[in-house]
TrEMBL record:
The keyword S-adenosyl-L-methionine does not apply. Pfam families: 3HCDH, 3HCDH_N. The keyword Oxidoreductase applies. Belongs to the 3-hydroxyacyl-CoA dehydrogenase family. Residues 185-280 form the 3-hydroxyacyl-CoA dehydrogenase C-terminal domain. This is 3-hydroxybutyryl-CoA dehydrogenase. It comes from Mesobacillus campisalis.
Amino acid sequence: MERISVIGAGTMGRGIVYSCATAGFLTAVQDISEESLETCRSYINKQLERSIEKGLVTAEEAEAAKGRISYSTSIQETVAEAELVIEAVLEVMELKMDIFKQLDQFAPSTAILATNTSTMSPTEIAAQTSRPERCIALHFFNPVPKMKLIEVICGLETSEETIRKSFEFGKAMGKECVKINEFPGFAVSRMNCLIGNEAMNMVMEGVGSIEDIDKAIKLGLNHPMGPLELADLVGLDTRLRNMEYLYKTLGEKYRPCPILVKYVKAGRLGKKSGSGFYNYN
């Protein structure tokens, strides 16, 4: 596998693009927004500059990685020669299904189509295509260049060959893969959403300050990041969409905390908007 296409140049998309390009893959990225593509380009250049400063790559290797990336607003152009397409757009089922219909139309018939969804059904998404056996979920974690895990989630008709190739792709990126059978929230998001939602409930109930609750979880459970800090990094709007989906599919224990709903309505979306549970301005 040599040619990877990424649909969506947001936080997850650009992290996947960076990781693919530095692993040696020819990587094409598509987004409907020129601004998002330019932000993606700036992010990748900045990450490579930091890697040079830290001695992780040479200037020549960084330039080679940049040269392996192409940018476009056209899905048809982006996936025309892809062997693997990774969709990394918003957690909105209708949007993902629409994109998979386009991918099925424009990507080579032999290409694997993967969704980076953290909670949603790859079976339902794959059903929009004529190749459900070549569809899968590859759940990367934020920030993609640093996080070692990929959850490989199999849909109802995902073939063993598609699973094998997905594991080979993950290994080539220097990631560890785990195979998870499809169920809402998979393994990590299902647990992570519960922990984060309970931390938000504790803030609302006055159990402790935001800082102290995060500190308690980090030091008491040996988590590298507090659950409220992590929710800000993921994006509170994204977390709310995940919680709403899990509440709908798994029931009452996933009901979104009212403070999460309130923050999203107020435009406090976390790090990307400048404020969430913490202030980043």
